[in-house]
């Protein structure tokens, strides 16, 4: 990943001077390196900026080291086409620069200590489209192991913070309903481009072809998935569609293991979690986030044994936080929450078809989005062939089948 020539010390200095409201800031040295490994981020190019700066404070010159993240919209190829047409970058820039700071203030005013996101320093809507945020790594935050999946402690922490995120969005929407007009699409929407639709169709078709080789399963399941691939995107649009009489929140929209960072104490016990990547935020049922999380992020042991515990933690935290924030909206009962999760269960199925393979793929077999979606439209992803993915899916697919999730609309 080449570093763009414009991402230099004079540019970063100008960004910092404006963000800090301090014209004495001088960047004295700076290095830029890729911030993520291949397979860790599919919808943007990330650069870590390490710099030394000086500033004048009370007549004295102070020197400090800072680390920032520059997140750039993809340039060229099918990846740029898909991300640009979906409007994902505009959503993230609006969330980071406008919506999240208000949600954070609502929480802080109510005495909640949760931090929703890194501080955003700059957004640029013109090409080259990008944003610059504080790097969370110096504060001790890091990614969990996506291949291992999240253990129960990580899952409970993540789901608590998701409930706080959702509750603060309810409080925000009660103050300003117009805010949701910016967040209408999400991942599944009838107005998305054919490139987006084809990604989900082709990846589901690829799964069907691989499942045909799995002797553990009836050939009927592969045949069902193959037929389903033709309408998989439409079915996902239907189950994620906004219903105004539902309990609705601003969803993170891409709530999987790589879009959350964790911090640990000296015994390596997880103590804090924070969200990253707000490109697919949308207003709708919280079932979307919850089911996407279950489909992509817990270890299989957690997925099998602790689902209800995690759901109850979400429900308790949501209800408690909405009370603290003095929301007038009525939170769903636990039975209502379970009911909406059943109605929208296909969200979890499609996440396991298309995103879970990317989570579990061995690092030696990782392909970029550009490599997976060739220009002739053929989808090639070795992730479906992995042993760990096969182990999870040979258990889940018969379950999905029994729930009617592999049937056509």
TrEMBL record:
Pfam families named among the record's database cross-references: EcKL
Entries under InterPro entries matching the protein: CHK_kinase-like, EcKL, Kinase-like_dom_sf
Annotated CHK kinase-like domain residues: 131-324
PANTHER family: CHK KINASE-LIKE DOMAIN-CONTAINING PROTEIN-RELATED, PROTEIN KINASE-LIKE DOMAIN-CONTAINING
UniProt name for this protein: Uncharacterized protein LOC107223062
Gene this protein is translated from: LOC107223062
